[in-house]
Each structure stands twice: as structure tokens, then as C-alpha cells.
Amino acid sequence: MRFTFNLAPLAIIAILLLAACGGNVEPTATPTLLDVPVTYPPASESGGQSSSVQSAEESSSGMNLNALLTIADVEASLPELSSLTTAEINYYAMIQMPNPDQVVGMNAFDGLVFQSGETASITLTVVDFESAELAKNHLNISSPGLEQTNIEGSDDSYAAQGGDLIAVLSRSGNYVVSINGSGLPETDAALEAGMKLLALALSRLP
To answer: Is 99:162 a contact under the CB 8 Å cutoff?
Structure first.
């Protein structure tokens, strides 16, 4: 599942979770980005416990992403990441203001970023579509360049790894959920951890 990636910082993912990028290189997965910087909260000073803040407007769905994936979950799967801080991002609001056509068919689009130090991060994104068919169509256009895989609790799933980057993308009903990682150890275990984290998030969907 190793691919050549051409990714900008995964903390500023927007619009498409992953989109195919043509070219003369190996299949390349790239996110479409919205140029909105994410400000992470400072690391907690209380014995490694991390703070959690809302870095944008309220969640577009009212869903608590912190209930889908926790700091403890991420640290247990990727012990290399420590002193994690989190930031919840309302991508729907960010996209809707400059280009409302991009959110047609979406009920919500939210992200939760787990940041470790200055370089390593894991981002959980959840897109709630108006129908399972719209979610399936979105997954189909977002998955070229990724390898189909099996993730418990999903209807369709894809994953890939390139260097210190991972991307895992799944659909469950009308939800498209992804785990993206940056600055991770360049091992198969990192991708496996991302897949396990995504399965855990899927199991907690409402």
C-alpha cells in the first residue's frame, strides 16, 4: 500500500478528503486544500494530558468528534506521538463562505486534528452527506491512487502510505470518514494504526 504522495500539510485539508492527481509519476493522492491556517492549542503543562479547543466555529453537524476518537485512542495506537493537543475544525463553514457550491449535498464536514510537536499529526475528518449514494459517489472520486482495503464497520475503504504520510478513507452509509497522518514513522505499523483508528471512529458513529 505504498504510494508516492504529493501532500501539503494535512492540517489544512478541505473540500475533498482525497482527490486523484494526474501526472507522469506513480499514482499520487492529493487533498484539495483551502488556504486557511489552523492554529493549534498549546500543549498542556499537566503531566502529558492535552487540552482540547474549538479552533473554528461550532461543529457543522453538532456531532462531538471527540467522542469518535480520543487522545488516549491515538496515543495507544501510535505511542510515538506524545503530548497531543487537539483542534476541532468546521470545514463546512470554511468552504461554504467562499464557495457554497462545494458543500451542495453535504449536511456537515468536520475535522479533529491531533497534533504532536511541530510536525506529526493525525486528522480525523467526517463528512455527513444527504444520502448514501452521494457519499458513495464522493468516495469514488476521492479514492483513485489509493488501494482498496477492508476496514471493520465500513461499506467501502481505501488506504495508502507514502513516506511519513498515511491516508485511510472509508464510507459507512451516508458518512465518509478519513484518517490522515503526517510526520509518522515510515513503517507498515503506522498505516495499520491509522486503519484501526478509523475502524474505532466508525464504530462510534451515531
So the answer is: no
Which residues, other chains included, contact 137 with Cβ-Cβ below 8 Å and sequence gap of 6+?
Answer: none
**Residue 172 scores a pLDDT above 70:** yes
Give tens-digit pLDDT for 9-63.
333 333 333 332 222 223 223 333 232 333 333 333 333 443 434 444 455 656 7
Report the predicted TM-score, pTM, of the whole model to 2 decimal places: 0.75
What is the torsional sign of CA 29, 135, 148, 197? Answer: positive
**Domain membership flag for residue 75:** yes
Quick check: is 39 in a domain?
yes
The residue with cell 452509509 is 173
Full residue range of the structural domain in which residue 153 is found: 10-203
Q: How many domains does the chain have?
A: 1
